[in-house]
Amino acid sequence: MTRTARLYGGSLYDLAAEEKVSDVILEEMEEVRKIFREMPEYLHLLGEPSIPKGERTELIEKAFGTQAERYLVNFLKLLCDKNLIHEFAGCCEEFTRRYYADNNIAEASVTSAVPLTDRQMELLKAKLEKMSGKKVKLVQKTDSSVLAGLRVEVEGTQLDGTVQSRLAGVSKKMNDIIM
To answer: If pLDDT is split at 50, 70 and 90, which confidence band does 143 have?
Structure first.
């Protein structure tokens, strides 16, 4: 994340928190980010210097003006006007980081070979919340190289309960005994 993204994303968070709309803006930022990911050509268009800034900001107004929080719409226009729309993803990361810190939320990712059931996700989330003392936002990932078990990362700490990790531990112990 760039310094610019931290500055702009943090400034938007400060304003949103002061105006008590941070929950709404967080949710809407994720939706806009999803749109930009699904339609990279639209993001490219908003950042195209050969198109006059007024036309680009009008595109934002037409797309989001009646559907998104006004502060977010104006923020997008500001990024567009300053030729910084490509920094939006970083701004989202900073906004989210600040929101989570202020609201005692930890983001955790769980990686498994197959998708977990809703019940398994609920149980894991409850256990992680008890361990961390924070509300946990759990993101699920699948990776076929994880033979069995789970790999969980919470606030930079990795909990590896995969078979691969256990086998590596057994192998290391065997090598230590033999040598």
So the answer is: confident
Sign of CA dihedral 155, 12, 53, 34: positive
Nearest CA among 82, 108, 96 for reference residue 12: 96
pTM metric for this prediction:
0.75
Q: CA torsion 154→155→157→160, rounded to 10°? A: 20
DSSP-assigned beta bridge partners for residue 158:
153
Quote the CA–CA distance of 152 and 128 in Å, as a whole number. Answer: 9
**Angle, CA 5 vertex, CA 49 and CA 61 arms, to 5°:** 50
| Average pLDDT in the chain | 87
The three-class DSSP label of residue 46 is helix
